[in-house]
Amino acid sequence: MTKQVALVGGSGKLGTIIKTVIDELDGFDVTRVLTSSSDLSELDGVDLIVDASTPQVSINVVRAAAERGINVLVGTSGWSAERISLVRPLVDAAGTAAVFIPNFSLGSVLGSALAAAAAPFFPSVEIIEAHRDTKIDSPSGTAVRTAELIAAARADQGPVDAPHTDQRARGQQVASVPVHSLRRPGVIARQDVILSGPGESLTLTHDTVEPALAYAPGIRLAVPFAAEARGVVVGLENMLDIDIRTRS
Question: Is 131 a catalytic residue?
């Protein structure tokens, strides 16, 4: 039986890509496309909600999904572990699922996994992320997720070494990791994780060149997964055969 999908933020860049992918998926049909200003009562009666709205609207979408007993797949940026903790009790009480995907790119997920694997071996870790100048939030959801994975992987070692973080130019600390955000024209998405130790450094770089091609495989995995999931799930790695010890 075909599942009816409501797509919030369907007219945006990510929403347009998501709709194109779902339209090609067997067993799913986007029957409602909402903007970020639509009345959330339009979500009534669907089988799955996919959120690609704005950080301000996204939390209301997740709450509305839980209230209606509907699973939700969240591709909107800006969801830190702290923010997710605000809606986790609602999702658990409803017996539904909220699946948060900071980045649908397989390469990005692998880059974050490699950074987490390397983090225990380097005392210093910093992240530089760049997105187009129209991105309204910073740091990016990908950078936040990467920093949280790094911190979890370093649980035995403790926080990374990050001197002089009282100075604004040192970036924003996320889970002890300094994150530096660039917003400029001519770039899609790029993340550099720089790990440093005595006498050496390791830089892990991921570039998104063509979003539609980069995100499509991850969306194809995430939509069926979200339709059947239960509880709060964070990260595309949960749909892949990647051994991240900090998996949630």
Answer: yes
